[in-house]
């Protein structure tokens, strides 16, 4: 990160520096502890983050320059980076997003998933209650935390196998929420429910890995295809995911599909 910080300062402030001139501090923080005004407006962070601060004091005028990187607590996934000059944000870049959220992108993605016939390939929807909650999910306000807690409570651990279908679906939703930097408190919903509801050890491990920024290679490839808009590789990526487990791949794709449907409705 230090090399990147040096590059950022040179690019944004035209200052050429050496690594030994920099100070460094890294600390775990709750997002509420981050000072207002030091972040771009559109960044969404989990409750707990790691902040990496690279500090340079210019000998000519004594100005303080801070290049920061905010990541998950394992430092594996970066959310945002920025440059502060005398405590004022002068440059920032949000990382890890697929694209700006625009209706055309969401519409095209939703149609691509719809063409797969996912509804017929998932074993998740087993009764009227399942169907009703899914319909309510599509209509719920993003800020309706009470409903989303109820939704997670119903589907977490629901189903059979090493990773129950309900878990696979929720993981698909979490992946898309993170990729679009949506302001969803999945971490708190999932971790709270894991203390109340027993799921498989495999699902438990997958949830915690996903919430820490880890994604399986099949889905990394899919998200990269979406980000780069290289849809010529779409079928191959979907095929690799569909072959994963008995229905786990399709159940996870179903979660992605539901999330895209909801996102499209909220933009219309």
Describe the protein in words.
This protein has 268 residues and is α+β, with helices and mostly antiparallel strands. The chain folds into two domains: 1-93, Nuclear Transport Factor 2, Chain: A; 103-267, no CATH class. 46% of the residues lie in helices and 15% in strands. It has ten helices and five strands, in the order H-E-E-E-E-E-H-H-H-H-H-H-H-H-H. The protein has helices spanning 2-13, 103-114, 128-139, 145-155, 165-179, 186-194, 201-211, 217-228, 234-242, 248-267, and strands spanning 23-30, 48-57, 64-71, 78-85, 88-94. Strands 1-2-3-4-5 form a five-stranded antiparallel sheet, covered by helices on one side. The longest helix is centred in the last third of the chain and has 20 residues, at 248-267. The radius of gyration is 21 Å and the shape is elongated.
SSE arrangement, N to C:
HEEEEEHHHHHHHHH
Round the mean pLDDT to the nearest integer and report it: 85
What's the shape? elongated
Whole-number total of structural domains = 2
What structural class do the secondary elements suggest?
alpha+beta
Give the DSSP E fraction (strand runs of 2 or more residues). Answer: 15-25%
DSSP, total strands: 5
Low-confidence stretches: none
Largest sheet: 5 strands, antiparallel
Oligomer: single chain
Figure out the total of helices: 10
Biggest sheet strand order reads 1-2-3-4-5
Protein name: DUF2877 domain-containing protein
InterPro entries: AllH-like
Pfam family, one: AllH
Organism: Candidatus Enterococcus wittei
